[in-house]
Specification:
The structure is a homodimer of 191-residue chains. By secondary structure, the first copy, chain A, is of the alpha/beta class. The first copy, chain A, contains five helices and eleven strands. In chain A, β6 and β7 form a beta hairpin. The first copy, chain A, is globular. The model of chain A has no long low-confidence stretch (mean pLDDT 95). At the A-B interface, β3, α2, α3 and β5 of A face β3, α2, α3 and β5 of B.
Chain lengths: 191, 191
């Protein structure tokens, strides 16, 4: 998506070999007009799917998911990161390893809000190693629901998560795929 | 706001004397059409203010703030809850006591995104003791910016936060003000 790639080139900050800061428009300060255009693009890509729910994960996925949900006319459900033991029976849960924070945590959603009738679009801001996305996919599958696909803002295509998940048969649509990035040479996107 | 009050009466769950669960439409599963109506109401209330930025706090404020921001045509900035020491000089920070979780934490925003020129609308889902809201107000004031006011979805008017903050001269507009609630007798709103 050219609009997002241009914005990343203009306002994204590359630090070292694999940190891309987009906190001026995506995950600290948020440009809601950009989010609306991203939502329209996912709607175009998934127009043949009868999506019933959008699933994301706190915190930085929530804004993107809510504005995308307006395009689909469906509710958002956000998975919570939990440091406590899960409440037996009331939630679906998955373990997620965070490479950024160097620890594992549980993500949970209430069973009330994911059912076997759901056709779920999963939305998140970043895809790198794919840990969070695999956790979200597991939550949907544990509920007996269908994963219609994933909508990612920025995929670090030089990390393995996206391709690994596509190989399992899950559709992944990333609006910007970073092939390489470098503090001096800038950011190269895939075609 | 009648639409929100009706929804709380219909889908809110009162537990004990002071827990009101609205996780089916506001802070776990999210009804984005309801959020759009809430955003329009805050826009009506603050139409005479030239708002430049909406400030909220992760996680459950983000969706509400993003959809409200579409009405105002301004960016959202969300404060992060930090358990690590703040990065000296780069952030504004405030301490917030969480009664729900029984501990104190820091909230932070990057200095880059709040300036003395900003006229800020602060948005959050709940107002009870007012701890989070006081922290957000401090971040704005530390930046030399102006607090235009606060937009709250649900105020527990039987707890002191809202009135304490209004007494300091800060405008607080809560769309639903709960006067009392009881598992058996239901929820009473203020007029």
């Amino acid at each position: 998506m050219k609009l997002l790639e241009d914005r990343i080139r203009k306002d994204g900050i590359v630090i070292g070999a694999d940190i891309l800061k987009v906190d001026s428009f995506l995950n600290h300060q948020i440009d809601v007009e950009l989010l609306a255009e991203m939502g329209k693009e996912w709607k175009r890509l998934y127009q043949d799917e009868k999506i019933t729910k959008i699933l994301t994960i706190e915190a930085s996925g929530i804004g993107i998911a809510c504005i995308a949900a307006q395009q689909f006319g469906v509710p958002v459900l956000f998975a919570k990161k939990s440091k406590t033991k899960n409440i037996a029976g009331e939630v679906y849960t998955a373990k997620v390893m965070s490479f950024t924070h160097g620890r594992e945590y549980d993500i949970i959603v209430s069973r009330k809000f994911l059912t076997a009738d759901d056709n779920v679009l999963i939305i998140d801001d970043f895809l790198a190693n794919g840990e969070a996305l695999r956790g979200l996919i597991k939550l949907v599958q544990d509920a007996g629901a269908r994963v219609a696909g994933c909508g990612i803002a920025i995929e670090k295509a030089f990390q393995p998560g996206g391709d690994q998940i596509r190989k399992t048969g899950v559709r992944v649509e990333s609006l910007a795929r970073v092939l390489s990035m470098d503090e001096n040479e800038g950011i190269v996107f895939t075609d």
